[in-house]
From TrEMBL:
UniProt key word Nucleotide-binding: no
Signal peptide range in chain numbering: none
Organism (species): Plantibacter flavus
Family note: Belongs to the MIP/aquaporin (TC 1.A.8) family.
Membrane topology of this protein: Multi-pass membrane protein
GO molecular function, a single term: channel activity
Subcellular location: Membrane
Protein name as annotated: MIP family channel protein
PANTHER family in the record: AQUAPORIN NIP1-1-RELATED, AQUAPORIN NIP2-1
Lineage: Bacteria, Bacillati, Actinomycetota, Actinomycetes, Micrococcales
Transmembrane regions listed in the UniProt entry: 22-43, 50-73, 79-96, 103-129, 149-171, 178-201, 226-247
Gene Ontology cellular component annotations, sorted alphabetically: membrane
Principal location class: membrane
Amino acid sequence: MSSPEVPPSVEPTTASQLLAEVAGTFLLVFGLVGTATFSAFFGEETSNPLGVGFLGVAIALGLSVTIAAYAFGPISGGHFNPAVTLGLAAAGRFPWRATWTFILAQLVGAFLGALAVFGLAAGGPAGFLDKAVASGFVSNGFGELSPGGFGLVSAIVIEVVITALFLYVILGVTHTRAAAGFAPIAIGGTLTLFLLIAIPIDNGSINPARSIATAIFGGGDWLAQVWVFIVFPIIGALIAGFSYRILFEGTRPVGSRPVANRS
């Protein structure tokens, strides 16, 4: 079998970049929410050993982002996350004027990804969809809506900290001095690690587009709490973006490669 021919290298158009962001964010949300909805627990009992549990959900997000980064990162830079787009802009790696179009594309992709899972759940056995929606449809939450009963302060701290660290990793592994070709693997692995920490606290956001999409289908109290998972991942990303050059690059002008992925 012959390999597909590689097309000539051309600069991606704005439309192709936005479509890549839609597709990549769709893949991210579909992989995460689909795994959490259908495979986290399998069967009547939540202790069923066939379920993948927290570990499987965290790995699913890491794999989804890694795959999306390799597939669509060369076209758009592979942000797939409004917090990442804003953090990269703060770091001088992405133009501020283009942030709103990327964020809009990410919101569309996230909604379509959650909608696809919702449609599949609607075709499940009697009561399956109702149970998924009643449990929040993989939405983020604190207090009574936290998987482990953690409060608002814990949710705020974890989202700021892990999103800031996530941006530091992205900015580091996409630097010109970093080993070429491995950024998506490092970024996907970082997301897996952070989700393992955050799932029991607030179901792990890091990504406002993912949080908005699932809250729309969870509705009610989940939608009322989604502001936390919009505001604080963005704050964490901006902290990392504005401080990265000061902390790690000093005042010297240093180049960087186009970013190749993010959740």
